[in-house]
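Reply to dn_fold:

You asked what the input looked like. This is it:
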Amino acid sequence: MRHAPISIAAATAIFVLGVFIINIQVWYSARADSLAGAHYVVRNMHVILTEAHHATQVAMRLAENECDAEGQYRLGTEAALQPHLRTIVILKKDAVWCSSLPGNRVLLVNGSALPEAPLLLVPSKSTVNGLPVLLYQTNHAGSRIMVSISDSHIRDALNMPLRGVAYSLLVGNRRLGQSGDVLTAAHSNNDVLTVKDVDYAFAIQFNAPPLFSLKRLFDQAGGVVLFLLLVSSLSAYLLQRYLSKDISPEESLRTAIYRNEIIPYYQPVVSGKEGTLRGLEVLARWKHPQSGFISPSSFIPLAEKTGLIVPLTQSLMRQVATQMNAISTLLPEGFHVGINFSASHIVASTFFEECLNYKRSFVQQDLNLVVEVTEREPLHVDEHLVKTLNGLHNKGFAIALDDFGTGYSGLSYLQDLHIDYIKIDQSFVARVNENEDSTLILDSVLELAKKLSIRIVAEGVETQEQLDYLMRNNITFLQGYFFYKPVPFKELIKILLSKPKVKVRVE
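and this is what came back:
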């Protein structure tokens, strides 16, 4: 999963770019729809004003004659027959001369005081019935002809079935929307669009659709967005598979160390006499998120070959310190905690200080921290090495030689270094059986250890015969499947809680 951020970033980029393109398309479509709706409203208003123009022609002919009963009848008939007109009024000398309403009644309050604009939106306060109207005005032969158009007809023309779009009639600096009274029009901005009529002095004003609207996006293209999400997710998966197929084992191991996939397992060390817990050996286990547990025999040699054994061990040290601090009250005084260190790590210039920091990180300072020197790699014994290990010994660390007898120069290590423990490899312990000759090599190793006053830990104890042999030879520390398998931290807690807390004495 080392390349997961790349895959996620690529999928996110695909999704964001796709949403951007879809949104632009949806926005453009919404803008086109709202603009088409505005043009449709303009045509509706044009039809209404054409009716007013025709009525004005009738009134102009009448204004040249007399406003008798016949003339008033003709105005009333014209107003009635035109579906969108309300009244037709002729003013002469600022007085009502003739009206389409019976008895020359008027709709406007003091209509003569209104501006003589060709088109005029009149607010409700200036009408008898308290409803706004649109006036179509013409001057002819000393007369002022005023044709009024009802607000209801105007609002019907403005009403378009487009979600989120509101149309208004704009005449001069006055505006009439789909509800309310005549208002003073605000200064135009980028959020407001207008469409003008070519013949009459009006425009249709409407709000421009926002560039981005989440609701509009899901309403109009929700399925496409969902499909895009699936495509981008699939792309991330395929890209991850492609990038991961060529990952080297070294890269995989490096990633595992970085993500703490390599975790400590603990194998208890017990007293053969009492069966009490004496300490723990820390073992590395790789818990791969997809492949499960990977055998140490697979990744430990790789780590040593590539130099990753150092950061691997450093990661284990941090995890062990954290976990031991969490259960410090369960650990008896003198309890052993041992970690294997490779030759390449021990000879590093930072090793000594790393061990001191490791010791300081423990809450319980009376633990017996063990540096287990593994013989998987040749260890060149020189002045620096002797100074480092003996210095750690003086600082309270115990030095153990792990897998004794299977490595490169075990005997020379015993001669040149201050070794506190040797751990008898399980291959020697496994040879112990009822045959007297089965223990010849092991007898020699034990005799050598006794002469050098080096304490012994026997690994790989699995049978009662092996235990009996080791007990006859006074082996103090024992470990193996006969007692406990390596266990994770949670299982270790259960083991500690099941055993009495006994101070560890070095025998």
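The chain has two domains: 4-207, 249-498.
Hope that clears it up.
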